[in-house]
Specification:
single chain, about 375 residues, alpha+beta, Nuclear Transport Factor 2, Chain: A, Immunoglobulin-like, 2 domains, 6-stranded mixed β-sheet, 4-stranded antiparallel β-sheet, 9 helices
Length: about 375
Amino acid sequence: MRKKTLFIAGLALTCILALTGCGKKPDKVVGKFCDGMKKLDYAKMNECLYDSSDYMTDPFEGDDDELEVFTSFVKEQAPNIKYEIMGSEVNGDDATVNVKFTYTDASPVITSAMGEYFSQALGLAFSGASEEQMGNLLLTIFQDKLKTTTLSTMESTVAIPCKKKDGDWKVAELSDDIANVLTCNILKAFEKVGDSFGESDEGSSGASDQNGIAVVNSTGNGGEEEEELVYTDVPAGQEVQLATLKLTVLNCEEAHELKNSYSTDTAEDGTKYVVFTIKAENITKSPIDCSISDVPIMDSQGRYFSMDTDVTFDMDDYILYKELNPNMPQTGTVVYKVPEDSTGYGMMIEHADTGETYKLLAN
């Protein structure tokens, strides 16, 4: 009888220890870290980190008062972060916790603001403006864009690695995805703009972007002397395959006024908008962005026109810089502004690897 009692007691103790061990999952520390994100509480987040050298600080922290605008915006949006722990995989003292975040996406505001900033900054610089005035210009444009833009949300599933330290789970590493959630994709948008300028000197005829596109310019295929541009017409509805992307022009419409859910854009006298509806498919094995802002159109008179990114981002169904997952085509619009007498449009695209140039016809 005594042996039986001891056996039952031992079995019960084993079960209790097993349950206690099961309760120590990395989900708890990840949940605590995510709660800190919602409050933008860096001290709370840092308590969850494995390595003190990775301690987090305000990404916009600095001596410039102008950065306070971005800090205030991020603080306002932090409570809107939603997270759901999808599950965890434990392998000894290492683990991975998958978290689905829903958060504010401010990248279209930044990209649109930067486009308008560059169009104004050149004249301001030539007029002898100070660095402070130049910085204030960007902040003013950013704040104006926020007043007229309906912010959307983005979903992102992030794998957060964890590691045991003194018997407790800690967050072992922070990826750029966490920074994107915390900053509402603002840092990511600035990096994209910087990358587009960094790539502008590559290639013989234009910048080569991650979509396998070389930007076509009005001097033909490059070189010291101007050459006649040789290209292949691609009818509307027919796709063209680039290094990492398939593009198809589905439709093209002209308009003097474009209405969306929160504003109206009106073309100046003597001009009109040309709206291309396109389909883009990522043919790689990893997500890429639809970064085609440098793709011009050419009309029947051989004139080139750059994309109007401000108006493009005002469209409810814009596709510019949208994330494209592999083999999941997305459809959306891009907008150009042209003179009233312009006709016969086509998007001019050069394959970055082969050098072949295509004119994706509007109709």
